[in-house]
């Protein structure tokens, strides 16, 4: 019998990562941040001094991706995030990373009781049969404010207007790409967290999950 999968999708800085990680720990599910795969590929490309828009290089790097690459130290950098959204529009890259994600969902590591995956296309493409699908949203302003605070808190320089602009650019690219664009699956429950703090969003998500599992 296959183990249950929870798909959590949403735009950048929607709070889906925090929520997904916490949810997984609470119900003893394995957690995979699928954005880190695209970030790892982007980081490897930047390290080589290559252009993330070069689709031949991107496809080659993605093809040799391994689980270890998720541990690279620069994955949270803004420039890696931007480059990640460029390589994520590459169909060959997406194809290479798809199998890794599906294997994780099918056989979650360390005897976990199921898997939580978060990203942009988990409910629509990676795990269309997921038992539970959540789509986490919030206004661009709220998300930019959260990201801005996060950057300042970890000691990075940040300008709110710049963060908002980058976020809109990334949203635009994620929503309008031809392959696996960011959107809620038809059977996803959308959770607008614009007026919720992280605790509240977690409580709402947890009760949705316990109703359905
Ligand atoms: O979620 P995160 O910001 O870490 O993701 C980085 C980039 O990876 C996103 O902007 C998006 O373009 C891409 N991504 C994706 N599909 C996923 C997860 C992330 O296209 N499932």
Describe the fold and architecture.
The protein is of the alpha/beta class. Helices cover 52% and strands 11% of the residues. α2 packs across α4. The two termini are 15 Å apart. The mean pLDDT is 96. It binds cytidine-5'-monophosphate (C5P).
Summarize the structure.
Helices cover about 50% and strands about 10% of the residues.
- The outline comes out as globular
Low-confidence stretches are none
Strand order of the largest sheet: 2-3-1-4-5
CATH topology: Rossmann fold
Element pattern in H and E? EHEHHHHEHEHHEH
Please count the beta strands (DSSP E, at least 2 residues each): 5
Q: Main attributes?
A:
globular; 9 helices; 213 residues; binds cytidine-5'-monophosphate; Rossmann fold; five-stranded parallel β-sheet; alpha/beta; single chain
């Amino acid at each position: 019998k296959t183990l249950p999968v929870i798909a959590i999708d949403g735009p950048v800085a929607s709070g889906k990562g925090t929520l997904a990680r916490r949810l997984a720990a609470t119900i003893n599910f394995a957690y995979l941040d699928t954005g880190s795969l695209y970030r790892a590929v982007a980081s490897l490309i930047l390290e080589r001094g290559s252009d993330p828009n070069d689709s031949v290089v991107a496809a080659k790097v993605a093809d040799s991706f391994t689980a270890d690459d998720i541990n690279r130290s620069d994955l949270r950098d803004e420039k890696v995030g931007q480059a990640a959204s460029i390589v994520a529009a590459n169909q060959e890259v997406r194809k290479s990373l798809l199998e890794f994600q599906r294997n994780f969902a099918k056989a979650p590591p360390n005897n976990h009781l199921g898997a939580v995956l978060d990203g942009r296309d988990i409910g629509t493409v990676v795990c269309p049969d997921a038992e539970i699908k959540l789509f986490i949203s919030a206004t661009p302003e709220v998300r930019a404010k959260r990201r801005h605070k996060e950057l300042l808190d970890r000691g990075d320089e940040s300008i709110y207007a710049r963060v908002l602009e980058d976020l809109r650019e990334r949203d635009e690219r994620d929503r309008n790409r031809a392959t696996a664009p960011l959107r809620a699956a038809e059977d996803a429950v959308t959770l607008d967290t614009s007026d919720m703090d992280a605790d509240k969003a977690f409580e709402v998500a947890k009760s949705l999950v316990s109703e359905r599992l």
